[in-house]
Amino acid sequence: MAAKAVTTTIPIVFNVAEDPVKLGLVASLARPGGNLTGANSFIGELAAKRLEFLRELLPGVTRVTALVNPTTPLAESALKDIEPAARAMGMQIKVLNASSSGEINAAFATFVHERPDALFVSADSLFTTRRV
């Protein structure tokens, strides 16, 4: 966003997790226009699809715990998509927030204690870098 505000002539390539049209980076995906172009992973939209895959892998799943990093904008987007998808599939979803290694450990302690049917980890570099 800062680069877009600074220049309109230097070509800029971005990699974002959200929809670049919604973010105002480009006019459309087919024809970005301007000096910005790039790639995105549609993390929010894929969260509901990942939940559907979970359901296919575990057809009897009803209670799901979602691990989310509340300090990133992606958390709101992912929850916005997975909560209604879970309800539509007859699942109860409980969100556990974690934004540090200590909070991840506490979330897993809760997970072990409450014994949900599955754990859904949101796409976030915090969790990726601490996956072990």
Features:
alpha/beta; 5 strands; 132 residues; two-stranded parallel ribbon
CATH architecture of the largest domain: 3-Layer(aba) Sandwich
What is the CATH homology-level superfamily of the largest domain?
Answer: Response regulator
- Gyration radius, to the nearest Å? 18 Å
Give helix % range.
Answer: 40-55%
Per DSSP, what share of the residues sits in E-state strands of 2 or more residues?
Answer: 15-25%
The best one-word shape is elongated
The number of helical segments is 5
Structural class, judged by helices and strands?
alpha/beta
Report the sheet with the most strands, covering strand number, pairing sense and barrel closure: 3 strands, parallel
Number of separate strands: 5
CATH fold annotation of the largest domain: Rossmann fold
Q: Which spans have pLDDT < 50 for at least 5 consecutive residues?
A: none
Q: What is the average of the pLDDT values?
A: 85
CATH class of the largest domain: Alpha Beta
Order of helices and strands: HEEHEHEHEH
Number of domains: 2
First-last Cα distance: 33 Å
- Strand order, main sheet: write it out: 4-3-5
